[in-house]
Specification:
The protein is built from 21 helices and 32 strands. With about 725 residues, it is α/β, with parallel strands linked by helices. Helix 1 packs across helix 12 and helix 5 crosses helix 7.
Length: about 725
C-alpha cells in the first residue's frame, strides 16, 4: 500500500480525503503542508492533517504539488482546529480556515519584491569619473549612495531618476537586484527602550504564582483580578521576560484593535534591546502586512505576538505563555462559524501545549471567576493601584429630574462644571456613551411613526454629520425625510442620543477645547486609532468622546475626569448578562480616570441610580457584585452553572424558515440529549436582519461535551433549503 496523506480541502465540507504521496514529493509532504490535489473534475488546495496507516478506500488519486517548504499548520494548531470543529459544531474545513489567515491562503499570497541598489565599489575608478563629468545625475546618485548606503530603488528615485541609476549599473558601479521587502506595520513607529519596574508586594505575589505554574508539568490557568491601574501590564511584561529567558515564545491577546498600538508600544519598548522580534496580528493590517507578519512568526523571527481575537492561532513554535488581557470582553467571541471564543480557545491551546495561560481583568467574566473560586483556575488579586494611587471618586447623577424646559439634559450641570474645572487645570477628560450616531431614532411627534430599517427589525439611527439614517446591523442608509411619510407632519423629533450628539454638546459647552470622537463611524482608516490615541497622549486633544473602544486598557495619566452618559442604556437589553456588562463597562471606563498623580472623578448619569450594577460599580466592589449575580444565576440555572447552545435559522421566507426550524426541533427532541432542556423554536428578539427572518432553538445543558457529539452530525449532514441557513452557537454571548 502506498504512503497516504489525509488532506482537508479548501471547500466547505466536513471531512478529509486520502491521497497517495508520489515518490518525488515524499520528502516535501509533511504534517500541516499545503498541497494541491485533484478533486472531482478540478484541482484544489488542501492541508495535510494526518498520515493514516490504513484507509477506507482502495484507489487513490495522487498529490500533484506542495507549496513552499515546511508546515503551514503546526501539528498543535491542527489538533486545536479539530477540537474547535467538535466543540463548536463547525465543519472541519471551516475550523482549519479560521486558523490560517486569508492573506496567507490566497493564491497570490507572497512577499513583496522590490529592486535594491547597492554599491559594488568604495571608490570611483578614474575612467568612470572622466566619463561621468557630463552625467551630473549619475554623479549625484553615486555620491548619495556613498554617503548614505544602499536602499530601495523606489525610494532613491527621489534623489536621481531611474535612468541615472541604470546608467551606474551599466558602468558596473552599482548592483540592482530584486529582493524581498517585508511590509512592516511598525515602519513609522519609534520605541525607546524601557526598563522593568520595581514590583509592589501584590505584584510580586502574582509573579510568584505565575513562576510556580511555569515550573509545573501541567500548569493551571492563572486569573489575575486587579483593579484598574494596579500594574497588570507590568506583570505580563515580566512574566514574558521570564519565559523568553527560558528560550520560549509568548502570545498576548487584546480585545480591541484600539488597544493594540499602546500594547505594542509597551512590549516593543521593553524588549527592543533583546532583539526577540515582536509581531502584531489584527484585522486593520493590510493583507500584505498580515501575510508578512504571519510568515515572520512561522519562520521563528518573532518570539512575541500581540493581536486581537484571531492571533490565538499564531504559528508560534516553543510557546511558553499565553496572556489574555481584558479576558471578559465579548469581542473575543467570533460572530461567524466557527463561533469560537478566543479566551476559551487560548485556554485549550495552553492545555494542549502545557503552557501557562494568564487571564487578566479588573472585572473578570463570572465564568472565569467561578472557575477560580472552584479551584480550576489559580486566582491572584491586586487590590491597590501602583504607586499607592487612589481609585477615582464616583458620583451617581440621577438625571430624571434634570431638565432644560421640558427636554432632558444630555450633559448634567455637575458634569459640565467638573469638566471645565479639569480643563482650567490643563487636564483631560473622557466622555463615554455606548451608542454611536446622533440620535437613536427618528420619530414623528404627531402619529408616533418611527423610521425603521426595511431589512431589519430595528429603528434607523440618525447620523447628523452624514445627514443619513443608518442601520447599525445591515448598514442600510437613506436620506432624512423632511416630513413624516405616514401623516405628512414636519418636523420630526429626534429621540435618544449617540456619540455624535454628545460630541456636538461638548463643542457647544466647551468651544475652546480640542475635542475628538472615537467610534466605528469615524475610525475607518488603518492608522486612525493609533493617530487619535497618539494625539490624546500628546495633549493635542482635551476631550475624548467615544464608545466602548475607549473604555478599557488605555493609560493616560492626564485624564482626571470621566463622564458616562446614559449608563443604564444596556440594562434594557433582554439578556441575562445585561447587568454584568453594565457593571464591567462602568468599572472599566471609570478606571481611565486618575491614573496619574491627581485623584480622578467619575460622573455616572443614569435614570436607575439604585440598580445593583451601578451601585456596586460606584463602590468598586467586584466581589460583592459577583456574589450577588452568581447567586441569581445559580437559582435560575444560568451559566456558569449550566451551559447554553443557541441554534438559529435564517431565511427570506418567514413561513418556510419557521417550518425548517420546527422540523429541526423535532429531530433534536428525538436525540434524547442527556440533562438537556430544549426551549423553542421561537422568533428571535430581533426578528429580522438583512431581509432574513430569524427563529431560534435554545438548549440548556449541564455538559456541552455530552451534547455536541450527538448534535453535530444532525446539523452537518443535513441539506437545508437554498435560502435557509442554520447556525449553531455554543456558549453564546449574544442572545438577540
Amino acid at each position: 500500500m502506498p504512503r497516504i496523506a489525509r488532506v482537508v480541502p479548501e471547500v466547505s465540507l466536513d471531512r478529509a480525503f486520502d491521497y497517495e504521496i508520489p515518490a518525488e514529493l515524499e520528502s516535501k509532504v509533511t504534517l500541516g503542508a499545503k498541497v494541491r490535489v485533484p478533486f472531482r473534475s478540478r484541482e484544489i488546495v488542501g492541508y495535510v492533517i494526518e498520515f493514516p496507516e490504513q484507509s477506507e478506500v482502495s484507489k487513490f488519486k495522487a498529490i500533484t504539488e506542495v507549496f513552499g517548504a515546511g508546515a503551514f499548520l503546526p501539528p498543535i494548531l491542527i489538533e486545536l482546529a479539530q477540537w474547535m470543529a467538535g466543540y463548536y459544531c463547525a465543519p472541519l474545513t471551516v475550523a482549519l480556515m479560521s486558523v490560517l489567515p486569508k492573506a496567507v491562503r490566497r493564491a497570490d499570497a507572497a512577499f513583496k519584491q522590490r529592486l535594491w541598489i547597492a554599491s559594488l565599489t568604495d571608490t570611483l575608478p578614474e575612467e568612470a569619473a572622466q566619463a561621468m563629468k557630463n552625467a551630473r545625475a549619475q554623479m549625484k546618485a553615486w555620491e548619495y549612495l556613498q554617503q548614505n548606503g544602499p536602499g530601495w530603488l523606489a525610494d532613491l528615485t527621489e534623489i536621481a531618476g531611474a535612468a541615472a541609476w541604470r546608467g551606474l549599473a551599466e558602468r558596473n558601479l552599482i548592483s540592482i537586484e530584486a529582493r524581498t521587502q517585508e511590509r512592516d506595520p511598525f515602519s513609522h513607529a519609534s520605541a525607546a527602550e524601557s526598563t522593568p519596574h520595581i514590583l509592589n508586594d501584590e505584584q510580586k505575589a502574582a509573579m510568584s504564582a505565575i513562576r510556580t505554574e511555569l515550573d509545573e508539568e501541567r500548569p493551571r490557568v492563572v486569573l489575575v483580578r486587579g483593579v484598574t491601574g494596579s500594574g497588570k501590564t507590568e506583570i505580563y511584561l515580566q512574566a514574558i521576560a521570564e519565559v523568553l529567558s527560558r528560550g520560549k515564545s509568548a502570545l498576548v491577546l487584546v480585545p480591541e484593535i484600539a488597544l493594540t498600538p499602546q500594547t505594542v508600544e509597551h512590549f516593543r519598548s521593553r524588549f527592543i534591546g533583546r532583539k526577540v522580534g515582536v509581531a502584531v496580528l489584527h484585522s486593520h493590517l493590510s493583507a500584505g502586512e498580515r501575510h508578512d507578519q504571519w510568515q515572520q512568526i512561522r519562520a521563528g523571527r518573532a518570539r512575541i505576538v500581540i493581536g486581537a481575537r484571531s492571533a490565538v492561532f499564531a504559528p508560534l513554535e516553543n510557546l511558553g505563555i499565553i496572556v489574555v488581557d481584558e479576558e471578559q470582553e465579548h469581542s473575543y467571541k467570533q460572530e461567524e462559524s466557527p463561533h469560537y471564543h478566543a479566551r476559551d480557545v487560548a485556554v485549550m491551546r495552553g492545555h494542549l501545549e502545557r503552557v501557562v495561560v494568564v487571564l487578566g481583568s479588573a472585572t473578570p467574566s463570572l465564568e472565569s471567576y467561578h472557575h477560580a473560586r472552584e479551584g480550576k483556575y489559580r486566582l491572584v488579586e491586586l487590590h491597590q493601584r501602583v504607586e499607592e494611587g487612589e481609585m477615582p471618586v464616583t458620583h451617581v447623577l440621577d438625571i430624571r429630574s434634570i431638565k432644560k424646559g421640558d427636554a432632558p439634559v444630555l450633559l448634567a450641570p455637575r458634569l459640565v462644571e467638573a469638566i471645565q474645572a479639569r480643563l482650567d487645570r490643563h487636564e483631560q477628560a473622557i466622555i463615554f456613551l455606548n451608542r454611536r450616531g446622533y440620535s437613536s431614532s427618528l420619530q414623528c411627534p404627531q402619529c408616533g411613526q418611527v423610521e425603521m430599517c426595511p431589512n431589519c427589525s430595528v429603528a434607523l439611527t440618525y447620523h447628523r454629520r452624514a445627514a443619513k439614517l443608518r442601520c447599525h446591523l445591515c448598514d442600510f442608509s437613506s436620506a432624512v425625510p423632511h416630513a413624516c411619510p405616514q401623516c405628512g407632519f414636519a418636523p420630526y423629533k429626534y429621540a435618544g442620543s449617540g456619540t455624535e450628539k454628545v460630541e456636538q454638546a461638548l463643542v457647544d459647552a466647551f468651544p475652546t477645547a480640542q475635542i475628538a470622537r472615537m467610534d466605528s463611524d469615524n475610525m475607518r482608516g488603518k492608522d486612525a486609532y493609533a493617530k487619535t490615541l497618539g494625539d490624546f497622549a500628546d495633549g493635542k486633544i482635551d476631550l475624548l468622546v467615544g464608545t466602548q473602544m475607549i473604555a478599557k486598557g488605555l493609560h493616560f495619566p492626564r485624564v482626571t475626569c470621566v463622564g458616562v452618559i446614559n449608563a443604564d442604556l444596556a440594562l434594557q437589553i433582554p439578556d441575562f448578562r445585561a447587568s454584568e456588562r453594565v457593571f464591567q463597562l462602568l468599572m472599566q471606563v471609570s478606571g481611565r480616570s486618575g491614573r496619574g498623580e491627581v485623584r480622578g472623578e467619575v460622573f455616572v448619569q443614569t435614570r436607575v441610580p439604585f440598580h445593583p450594577a451601578i451601585q456596586f460599580a460606584r463602590h468598586h466592589d467586584y466581589v460583592g457584585f459577583a456574589e450577588q449575580e452568581l447567586g441569581f444565576r445559580r437559582s435560575l440555572h444560568y451559566p456558569p452553572y449550566e451551559r447554553f447552545i443557541l441554534i438559529t435559522a435564517r431565511g427570506r421566507n418567514e413561513e418556510k424558515t419557521q417550518f425548517v426550524i420546527e422540523q429541526l426541533a423535532k429531530e433534536i427532541e428525538k436525540l434524547h440529549l442527556p440533562e438537556t432542556e430544549i426551549t423553542g423554536p421561537s422568533l428571535a428578539p430581533i426578528a429580522r436582519i438583512e431581509e432574513r427572518y430569524r427563529f431560534q432553538i435554545f438548549l440548556r445543558t449541564k455538559r456541552i461535551t455530552a451534547v455536541t457529539p450527538r448534535l453535530r452530525p444532525l446539523l452537518m449532514d443535513r441539506a437545508w433549503p437554498d435560502d435557509t441557513r442554520i447556525t449553531i452557537d455554543v456558549d453564546p454571548v449574544d442572545l438577540l
